[in-house]
Task: inverse folding
């Protein structure tokens, strides 16, 4: 079939690109993602107010770009979203640099240095609209270049956005007052402290905004001794390993005024409950139960951290602004169970039913008797060995009884209905190769059955063992050979 190449007209495309619905905070966060992807560990943001206009610069000490890479980077859609990203990479559609910048203003200038060589480009949407063509300037206009400064060291990038019509304007006023401008900048400062808290904490990245260093805001109060912290559960969802960990924040009476205020974040305690979804440690979405539950006052202490790898983008429908996700149905069902539990714990703490007994004790481990754990070969329910009641029993009994208890627990776990695979028992007649650990388990269990006189002879012993889900993978002949080798005595 014949085809003709049709170029989209520049002007309407620009309007569409400018209206993706970025907030100023999400736009800036998307630009910081680029600096982080370039392995920068120092990022310096400046918001300047000139009265009738303003300018935003973001300077980083990342690996910069050469002329060709920069040319490609300035393309609208410079990467195919389906190509695999490097692990840990924050980019997604090859759009962010342009779409985020244009949501703030009409001119984007990029100055970059790679191995000591500078490269520069500039998009001016006024010019693009005027000629209705995607004409990219190969030089940054002097009036902009003069306040962008230079790049220290061998590599790095400075981007500057000005003609800030969107950032400076509001519904009624064309250019906002200086005080409103800086109030907006302060809100962005807090937003970034939140979005990047985990990256700043883990990666030792320094982000400075108008001379003030960002102080990471930890929504989970992990350092507070009264925070209840669940075990990390790994969910294997459509081939991606998703980590989930819940936190129940301390009752208000355990926090001083400062801690209380800060933990309430920008929207207040009630509005900050729910799931916190991170992609490569960068917060994407937070503060709701993904439509599963209401935000009740009594569940306001519950916050659940979900960590996604960037390979889960499509499955979780990460949007272009990296501010929204839609979990796959399979994940929703799992998350709902976890949320139900953590909301209940929150209610108990909120009404002061639980925490009194755990004062000043970092209460690790959940009150769940079972926890879901993921491994390469799928998921398994494992017993929560840190359950407080179990810990108490273990403390109270002697060594011999402790051994018996642990063996029993191992069997309970292996025999959990959810862990039993329904593959038929291997009944072929050859003896299988068995690990030493498995042999040991068979022998331990068999010895107890004999000692307690549950079985009277070898035949009965093997009949008993073969019914155990824990030994599902072993056939009769193998069990027999293990027992004979161990020389267990029933008579
Ligand atoms: N600060 C930066 N330092 C180095 N390279 C950058 C920087 N910002 C953007 N780039 C380059 O520009 C490309 C396009 O960026 P962007 O439009 O945000 O898309 P994405 O981040 O999804 O790849 C990036 O893939 C990267 O190669
Ligand atoms: Mg990007």
Result:
């Amino acid at each position: 079939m014949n085809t003709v190449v049709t170029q989209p007209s520049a002007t309407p495309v620009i309007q569409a690109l400018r209206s993706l619905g970025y907030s100023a905070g999400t736009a800036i966060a998307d630009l910081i993602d680029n600096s982080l992807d370039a392995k920068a560990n120092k990022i310096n943001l400046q918001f300047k107010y000139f009265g009738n206009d303003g300018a935003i610069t973001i300077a980083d000490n990342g690996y910069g770009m050469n002329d060709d890479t920069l040319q490609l980077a300035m393309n609208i859609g410079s990467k195919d979203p389906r190509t695999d990203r490097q692990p840990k990479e924050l980019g997604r559609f090859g759009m962010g640099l342009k779409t985020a910048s244009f949501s703030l203003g009409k001119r984007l200038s990029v100055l970059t240095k790679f191995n000591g060589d500078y490269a520069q480009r500039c998009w001016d949407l006024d010019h693009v609209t005027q000629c209705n063509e995607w004409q990219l300037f190969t030089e940054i206009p002097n009036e902009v270049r003069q306040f962008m400064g230079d790049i220290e060291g061998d590599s790095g990038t400075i981007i500057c956005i000005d003609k800030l019509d969107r950032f400076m304007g509001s519904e009624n006023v064309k250019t906002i007052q200086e005080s409103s401008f800086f109030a907006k900048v302060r809100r962005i400062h807090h937003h970034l402290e939140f979005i990047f808290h985990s990256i700043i904490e883990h990666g030792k990245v320094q982000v400075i905004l108008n001379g003030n260093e960002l102080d990471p805001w930890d929504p989970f109060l992990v350092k507070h001794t009264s925070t209840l912290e669940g075990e990390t559960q790994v969910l294997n969802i459509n081939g991606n390993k998703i980590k989930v960990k819940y936190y129940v924040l301390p009752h208000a009476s355990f926090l001083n005024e400062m801690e209380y205020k800060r933990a309430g974040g920008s929207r207040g305690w009630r509005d900050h409950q729910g799931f916190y979804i991170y992609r490569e440690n960068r917060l994407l979405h937070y503060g709701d139960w993904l439509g599963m539950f209401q935000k009740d006052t009594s569940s306001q202490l519950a916050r659940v951290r979900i960590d996604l790898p960037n390979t889960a983008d499509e499955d979780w429908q990460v949007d272009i602004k990296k501010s929204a996700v839609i979990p796959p149905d399979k994940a929703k069902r799992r998350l709902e169970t976890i949320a139900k539990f953590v909301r209940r714990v929150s209610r108990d703490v909120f009404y002061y039913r639980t925490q009194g007994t755990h004062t000043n004790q970092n209460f690790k481990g959940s009150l769940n008797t079972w926890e879901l754990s993921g491994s390469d070969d799928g998921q398994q329910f494992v017993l929560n060995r840190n359950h407080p009641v179990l810990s108490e029993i273990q403390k109270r009994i002697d060594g011999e009884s402790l051994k018996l208890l642990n063996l029993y627990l191992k069997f309970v776990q292996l025999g959990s209905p959810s862990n039993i695979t329904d593959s038929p028992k291997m009944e072929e007649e050859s003896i299988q190769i068995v690990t030493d650990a498995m042999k040991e388990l068979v022998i331990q269990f068999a010895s107890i059955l004999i000692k307690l006189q549950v079985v009277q002879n070898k035949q009965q012993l093997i009949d008993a063992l073969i019914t155990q889900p824990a030994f599902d993978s072993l056939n009769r002949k193998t069990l027999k050979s293990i027992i004979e080798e161990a020389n267990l005595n029933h008579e």
